[in-house]
Write a structure and sequence with these properties.
Blueprint lengths: L3 H6 L6 E6 L5 E7 L2 H8 L8 H9 L2 E6 L3 H15 L6 E2 L7 E4 L8 E4 L8 E3 L5 H15 L19 H4 L13 H15 L4 H16 L3 H20 L1 E2 L7 E8 L3 E10 L2 E11 L6 H15 L6 E4 L6 H12 L4 E3 L4 H43 L6 E10 L2 E11 L2 E2 L5 E4 L8 H25 L15 E4 L3 H13 L6 E6 L5 E6 L2 E4 L5 H26 L15 H11 L2 H6 L2 H5 L6 H11 L1
Length: 618
């Protein structure tokens, strides 16, 4: 039994990360501290300064653990990683998990390539970006290949020169074909350098060159060529117009500002690269236990820059984050160079931050209704289901279904919904191993026994090794089990959980005669649901998803020719008798409906074989 008062006395006065768990072992909050002893004890001391949200979180803490680190910087890195991994309920969370594309120039190759990259690696290539959309990257790459005729293939040059014919890009004049030796390394290098200048925002030379070529083609009455140059010229101008100069300096910087209301915040980021605004994006933040803008900005900066590979030279923010010094050290460690944190007070810098703040406020106002609708159909719907069943704090739901074709190669599906959304990384498939024939109850017993026995074993093994149990694939148990069916399936689940010593609420998703969701079966009572409510719609989605996942797995097995006839599972029935039965009755359903006498009348069958078939289905 975890005694909070006793454990508080054991806390060390050292830097580290603390992890709060609820009674279901779920991580609900992760924080870092210079002194674990002082910081963690503050949560459990009576104080008038605590907000209602903090009080609510503390009331749910069943136990806590901590990890000691050598420095506050190490604690910050660990805190960021744990928050990203577990997404605790009471941490201020960045809702949008976006990955920005880059344009990569493989400058270490003899004949470099220009391509899109989703990650920024330390591979000595040169990266440009980030770009705010893959579409923008594609358009830019298309233009670069038309202008500079850089290769797109992955051939090893010059080793593979002349081994294969040139590709289509050569024939449509979008590649110099270095693979054929049609251009020297030096000349090709000049084209790559020009492409890098273009990506760096230097458009004047290419604009002048295209103007001259267009005019020359027009003077020579080569109007087709002139039109081609005119279109290229328009494309370059279009890209150039998007990159507005934001300051005279050529630094890389992100300009960050936010707007908030009681429950949500929007953070707007302007991306400035080499003095040019290349794009902007906004991020929705669930402010959870945060109390002010400073705390929200602190959480955003830590979460956003723990996930993006590019750290700019400067961050301009509307308000200095908490722990600014340690955050700067962390960003400098990630960047490998000095990072400046600037809170503009006047002039153009302040106006740009104000512009970002106005954009954030506009997005918050515009998206508020959309956010509300989304939360109603997800978290709100989950809360409705909890209220119907008299349960609080339902976040994780697991639903199960069995699929077979008259008992043929039965499979089970386990799907997971967290906060009203499917968590597909936690879905699991089961091939039924111990049950022969069409027995959904026995198949479900096997699936549940395997799932929870595995989870208990994995938890014990990880605990013995001093590992975080929540990192295991089966160790996270649900707040609610939802069975596809009524009393029978619910009772099977309760029996399995009872045998394993687990207490998890179980309800059945009951369907009507038309196979449509009708209500929930819980505590031996069918609970009716308003069919127009979001909770009802969520139950229907969960039920349909469990069924879809099981059917999909079953079909994949059939597609691999791994499914055999159910008749092969019957004693005294081999390939010859199986063929004779199917020839006589035409379908498996007809075989199931046949009497012993009718089965015995089939050529090749005897009374013992007929009895075996009849007993199997009855």
């Amino acid at each position: 039994m975890f005694n909070i008062e006793e454990e508080l006395k054991k806390l060390p006065a050292q830097p580290g990360v603390y992890i709060m768990h609820d009674k279901r072992d779920q991580i609900i909050y992760v924080g870092k501290a210079i002194s674990l002893k002082n910081r963690v004890r503050q949560y459990f001391q009576s104080s008038r300064n605590k907000t209602a949200k903090i009080e609510q979180m503390v009331s749910r803490i069943a136990w806590f653990e901590y990890i000691i680190t050598d420095s506050e910087l190490e604690a910050l890195v660990l805190e960021c990683n744990l928050i990203k991994e577990h997404r605790p309920r009471y941490n201020t969370m960045l809702k949008d998990d976006k990955a920005y594309p880059y344009i990569k120039v493989t400058v270490t190759e003899d004949f470099p390539r220009v391509m899109m990259s989703r990650t920024m690696k330390k591979d000595k290539s040169k990266y440009f970006g980030p770009f705010t959309s893959a579409g923008a990257v594609k358009d830019t790459l298309d233009l670069i290949h038309k202008l500079y005729k850089i290769r797109t293939c992955n051939r090893n040059l010059p080793r593979d020169t002349g081994k294969e014919r040139p590709c289509l890009n050569y024939h449509i004049h979008q590649c110099y074909a270095p693979c054929q030796g049609y251009i020297s390394k030096e000349e090709y290098g000049k084209a790559v350098a020009q492409a890098q200048d273009f990506l760096g925002g230097h458009y004047e030379s290419i604009l002048n060159m295209l103007e001259e070529k267009m005019q020359a083609a027009s003077d020579a009455l080569d109007f087709e060529k002139a039109i081609e140059y005119r279109e290229l010229l328009g494309s370059v101008k279009k890209v150039a117009q998007k990159q507005k100069i934001t300051s005279g300096s050529m630094d890389d910087r992100d300009i960050i500002a936010m707007a908030k209301d009681e429950t949500d915040a929007v953070v707007q980021v302007f991306f400035v690269r080499e003095g040019k605004l290349i794009g902007r994006d906004h991020f929705h933040v669930n402010i959870a236990t945060a109390e002010n803008r400073k705390q929200i900005l602190t959480s955003f900066v830590k979460q956003f820059y723990s996930g993006t590979p590019f750290i700019p030279r400067e961050l301009w923010v509307q308000e200095e984050p908490e722990e600014a010094d340690i955050i700067m050290k962390w960003l400098e460690m990630k960047r490998g160079q000095k990072v400046k944190l600037v809170v503009p007070q006047k002039g153009q810098k302040e106006r740009l931050v104000e512009l970002a703040e106005r954009n954030a406020a506009m997005v918050l106002a515009q998206d508020k209704e959309k956010i509300k609708r989304e939360e109603l159909r997800t978290i709100g719907a989950m809360n409705q289901i909890g209220a119907l069943l008299g349960l609080e704090g339902i976040r994780r739901v697991e639903a199960y279904d069995i699929s077979n074709t008259s008992g043929l190669e039965s499979v089970g599906s386990m799907i997971v919904y967290e906060d009203g959304r499917p968590k597909r990384s936690d879905y699991r498939k089961f091939r039924i191993q111990t049950v022969k024939g069409p027995n959904d109850y026995a198949s479900m017993r096997e699936v549940l026994t395997r799932r929870f026995s595995h989870g208990l074993k994995e938890s014990k093994d990880m605990e013995d090794q001093g590992m975080d149990k929540s990192m295991g694939s089966f160790t996270r148990f649900p707040d609610l089990l939802m069975m596809d069916g009524g009393r029978g399936q619910v009772n099977i689940a309760l029996e399995v959980l009872g045998e394993l010593g687990l207490e998890i609420p179980v309800c059945g998703m009951v369907k009507d005669d038309h196979h449509r969701t009708r209500g929930l079966y819980y505590h031996n009572v069918e609970v009716p649901i308003d069919s127009h409510s979001e909770g009802f719609r969520l139950i229907t989605r969960i039920q349909d998803e469990a069924h879809r996942f099981a059917i999909e797995y079953h079909r994949s097995l059939r597609g691999k020719d791994q499914v055999k006839s159910v008749l092969d599972d019957i004693d005294n029935i081999g390939p010859t008798r199986r063929k004779a039965l199917m020839k006589a009755f035409k379908s498996l359903e007809a075989v199931k409906a046949a009497t012993v006498e009718e089965l015995e009348a089939v050529p090749g069958m005897n009374s013992r074989a007929a009895e075996s078939v009849y007993r199997f289905f009855h």
